[in-house]
Amino acid sequence: MRKRMKPYSTNEKLLFALKSVKIIPDAPLMNMERDVLSMVSRISDAVSENIITLMACYKWKESMHFLFPFVEADLSDLLRNNNSRCPPHLREKLKAGEVLLDHWLWQQMEGVSRALSAFHTQMENPFKDVKGKVIALHFDLKPANILVTSGPDGVTLKITDFGQSIIQIIDDDKDISLPHNTGHPRYGPPESRPSSQHLTQGSGDDLKVLLNYDVWSLGCIMVEVLIHLLDEDLNDFDSKLQGPFYIKEPNGLKKCVTDSFRRFEQAFQHDSDQTEYMKDIVALLQNMLNHDKNNRAYSSTVTQKLDEARGNLEALRDGRNQLVVAVEKQGFKDWKGFRKLGWHKGTSIVSFSEKEGITLHLIRQRTGEPVYKNTTSIPCRISLWAKTIRTEQTQTGIEIGLVWAVEKGGTPEVGRKNFDPRKWCFAPTYVFPDPASSTNRFDCILFPEIGTTTPGDDDFVFTLGFPSLEDVLIFQGALFQRSILPPISISISTLKPKREAEAPKINEQDSYLQFWAPDKPKYVGPLSPDGKSDRTKPRGSIDSSSTGLSEHNGRALEKPFETMVILFKHHRPLVFTLKKGLIKLSRCGSTALQIDNRVDKSIHVRHPPIYQVWKSEDPRAAPRQPCLPVDPEIEKLSECILKILTIRITLAKEQGKQ
């Protein structure tokens, strides 16, 4: 008993509080507190620290009796200094130069949010003969129902008074909703007051609410805690609020609440790191206080967002690059189905935000004007995301998300774009660098096909510069869902099409050969135990027995390949893609290769067009680039097909090697 009382007092003398509730046989909601407290007492992990401890429960005569530790002060006493029950040192506000994350009261509010999430959906089902998931709602979360305890391990906030709570056991696939129970009107969400339409069409007793009902209440409490900690006048806020936090018409929040949000964001004007943190917290509060319950955050999301905001601030305080923090914060993680793409680093796959030395030149496609003035390229950090699109369990394509962050005026400026890769182009300009450029950079251009996107969209042309050839190939591979090998300098001595009128224009000398292998997306996280990424089963491979590639590109023989690309400086590329079987490359001497499609008719040859990159008042001045479609299923596209009978290639050397 004394051990269980330790968090509540430093005194030898133990004090208890007894709550008695009369049993009413025909009022199940009135008797539910017993069941709730019984189940809450079974929560055993760290979150239980922020929930009141039930010491004993027993039935005597016509009442249920609950024995709790006696706690004199609650959060309302602390915030409003209502009486002398709360010691003065607990009412201390945030000092000048103090970090909000380091204040015990804000740390405890994080703990309360975790406890609430556990109470909502993480309690164990105690009934062996009843299958299903336990869900619960408190319904009366308010400062007066959050106790302030002081023990040898410090001060702790504890959720109490489950008298209005409701629990249910539901099937896992059932909509999570509960019958409404009335709590304090100040902290209740808009749905706590039924609309006139609901009251006229049915009984108010059948009103259903979602598990984020309590999230609204928690958001209200967090607003009051921040007002207190930031040394604002809570009494003045109370006088302006005069009732609930919301207004019915139009649906929204009262002005004193939204004014508080602005002050929160401006509270640390001389501390850019905490300013970014407060922006995260305000965004979270706005989500918690969403008038529409269907779009309001749930308690699990609240804890996740608080952890993410804490992690971002700690990263900035530890000296982590602010662009990395910004680009990670503004990703597509909240977009359903999107997952973050990455690259191999040791035994893990890490985000592209960890790649240093990337630069960005951003152009508005509709005007050709640069987004970032007075600079051709600017250092940036990026993250890359992908979403699988399925129809009846069959993958039909993907959607790509690109996030970028640059520094403007000492602060990060973040942008993001999601797009259908079938409508976008990739220009591998790293293959043909500008000889006049003094920088040893490896660039590529990513842009939508003009006329394929929705009118009014703010479409961009991305010129991304990478510090190494390996880096740009990794980026291209993530976009294409392919393993991309370095280009090999070649010359073409023979190219015979089926029809002479279809003969493609080529640079016989200034050309490069590149091989692609199938590769599944690399999602950020630890690798499988063998340290290898999962590969799709290849549809074909290079027949290494008949090639002389080992001298010029030994890495090409390490993996199966199904696509061979020939890139020209000024002309349309040729993309050789398998339909079935192996690509047969016949050896013609030690450095020459030949494909004879008259013998093996399994090869598709695509001839993608040259695309205009952005619009210009003078069409003749508009830049144009030989491009590859950004589409992982490139072999399924049937347009621009050529019939090539024979091609003979002479290998020179792999790009980047002497």
Automatic annotation (TrEMBL):
The keyword Endoplasmic reticulum is assigned to this record: no
Region listing for Disordered, in residue ranges: 176-201, 526-554
Origin: domain of life: Eukaryota
PROSITE patterns referenced in this protein's UniProt entry, alphabetically: PROTEIN_KINASE_DOM
InterPro entries: Kinase-like_dom_sf (IPR011009), Prot_kinase_dom (IPR000719), TF_kinase-domain_protein (IPR053083)
All copies of domain Protein kinase, residue ranges: 1-316
Keyword entries, A-Z: Kinase, Transferase
Gene Ontology terms for molecular function: ATP binding; protein kinase activity
Name by which UniProt lists this protein: Cyclin-dependent kinase 2
Gene behind the chain: cdk-2
